[in-house]
Amino acid sequence: MSKKKRKHYFREKVPSRPCPVISAGIEEIDYKDIELLRMFVTEKGKIIPKRISGLSAKAQKRVTHAIKRARNAALLSFSEGYVSQDEGQEKFSNDYRNKG
Amino acid sequence: MAVKNNFEVVMIADAKLTDEESRGVFEKFKGIVKNQGGEVKFESGWGRRKLAYEIDKKRHGIYHLLYIEGNGELVDELERQFGYDDNIIKFFVIAVDDLEKAHTGFEALKSDPGKNAGLVKEAMGA
Q: Which phi and psi (to 5°) does residue A38 adopt?
C-alpha cells in the first residue's frame, strides 16, 4: 500500500481574544457574586465550558470553583441556574410572613 | 502553639424567625466561637433571601456570615452545634486567606451587586 499524501489545509488564523475576567481586572471571584457567576451558567444551571465562555484556564478554574460553592450556599440552583430574588418574593409571599 | 486559621462561616436560618429571633440564633453561635477559644473578627448579615432550591421544604432563608479566627477543633464543634439547632437550615465553613479583605469585599459586593458583572460585560464587548 502506497502512502497517500495528505493535503494540508491552512486554517485562517482566528484573532485571539483576551479573557474577559482577567482583562476586567478581577483577581478573586467571590462565590457570593451571583450576578457575575450567572453569566457563566446556562439556563439549566450547567457551567459553560471554557471554549465557549472564552475564559482563560486560570479564570475558568476560579469561576467553576465559585459556582460550585454558590450552589452549595443555595445561591445558584443545581438545575435552574440563576433564580431571581424579586419574582419569588411575590410568588411565595405567604410562607414566611405569618410571624412578621 | 495553637494554630490559628481564618474561616468564613455561612449560616442560613429559617425565614420563619423574626429579625430578633434570628439575631438571637446568630449570637448563640458567636458565643460558641468565643467559648471554644476562637475570635469573631467581623460579621455581616445578608438578610432574607430566596433560596435557589428548596431546603427542607423551605424557600426562604436569612443569611448571616461570620469571619472567625480559630483552630480546627473549633470548626468541628461549631459544625456539631449547627446540626443540633433546628433554626439553622444550612451552614458551611470555608477557609479564607485574609479576613479583612474577604469582609470588605463582601460589603462592597452588597452595596453594588452588579459591579463585577458590568466590568466583565464591558470587557466582552470590547
A: -65, -20
